[in-house]
Amino acid sequence: MSIETILQGVKFDEKGLVCAIAQDWQSKRVLMVAWMNAEALQKTAETGFAHYYSRSRQKQWLKGEESGHTQKVHELRLDCDGDAVVMLIEQNGGIACHTGRESCFYKIWQNGAWHTADPVLKNEADIYGGKHP
Amino acid sequence: MSIETILQGVKFDEKGLVCAIAQDWQSKRVLMVAWMNAEALQKTAETGFAHYYSRSRQKQWLKGEESGHTQKVHELRLDCDGDAVVMLIEQNGGIACHTGRESCFYKIWQNGAWHTADPVLKNEADIYGGKHP
């Protein structure tokens, strides 16, 4: 698979990043949003597994490299202005969030407040053994 | 509805923005990704219709104010680190993209190239009558 072609039409921002949304390929639930630089996008296309760029750690990473919660990419789409991608992914372990929940979007706005709506499926300490995601 | 409370736990970036994803409330298709400032997020919660912040025009806007393609919000969620929201929305007219397509994510990565996958449902000129979205 060409890893150069994929950059055509992609408009990275002033930090060299695009927004990347991971959506469960079956339920279509949005599991997380993160960032990709050119290398992460290329690696994602090349390997078929989601790679992101960590702004805090300033490096590209394979999602699940420590937790095992990898994301196999079934479909990759780019938006009209080229600054965001959506992936339909198969979430290994059923957990995308570093808090041990299925999705990072577990806070729901109801009756004038944010409520935690989803259960923790696995404790953070058990996922990472004390390491940072 | 309290419009102050909604800002609690939301972490706006250095430009005062959070990433906002609009997903069809029934098919769960991701229709678009844009940005919200505090005012847009508050207006969204207050009115029940998606408001965004345009980085190019540097102003808050009601999605659909010119096109009529408003987005009625059925559910609003915030992610673990508070810098992104996902909305389940009802897309008026069935068109979210300024190109006249259902979704902004109409380019699909297949066989080493980006392909346009979705039809134009309405011409841009007919949507905006020559005006900018």
Shape of chain A: globular
**Helicity range of the residues of chain A?**
10-25%
**What share of residues are in beta strands of chain A?**
25-35%
CATH H-level superfamily of the domain at 3-93 in chain A: Phosphoribosyl-AMP cyclohydrolase
Stated plainly, the CATH topology of the domain at 3-93 in chain A is called Ubiquitin-like (UB roll)
Q: Major β-sheet of chain A, in short?
A: 4 strands, mixed
CATH architecture of the domain at 3-93 in chain A: Roll
**In the CATH hierarchy, what is the class of the domain at 3-93 in chain A?**
Alpha Beta
Q: What do the pLDDT scores of chain A average to?
A: 93
Strand order of the largest sheet of chain A: 2-1-6-5
Q: Count of helical segments of chain A?
A: 2
**What structural class is derived from the secondary structure elements of chain A?**
mainly beta
Q: Give the SSE order of chain A as H and E letters.
A: EEHEEEEEEH
Radius of gyration of chain A: 15 Å
What is the straight-line distance between the termini of chain A? 29 Å
Oligomerization state:
homodimer
Task: List unreliable stretches of 5+ residues of chain A.
Answer: none
Written account of the structure:
- Two copies of one chain form a homodimer.
- Chain A contains two helices and eight strands, in the order ββαββββββα.
- In chain A, a hairpin with a 2-residue loop joins strand 7 (107-110) and strand 8.
- The first copy, chain A, is mainly β.
- A four-stranded mixed beta sheet of chain A has the order 2-1-6-5.
- The first copy, chain A, has helices at 38-47, 124-128; strands spanning 18-24, 30-36, 51-54, 59-62, 71-78, 84-91, 107-110, 113-116.
- Chain A has a domain at 3-93: Ubiquitin-like (UB roll) (Roll).
- The A-B interface holds A 1-2, 5-6, 8-9, 19, 21, 23, 27-30, 32-33, 45, 75-81, 84-86, 97-99, 101, 104-109, 112-114, 117 and B 1-2, 5-6, 8-9, 19, 21, 23, 27-30, 32-33, 45, 75-81, 84-86, 97-99, 101, 104-109, 112-114, 117.
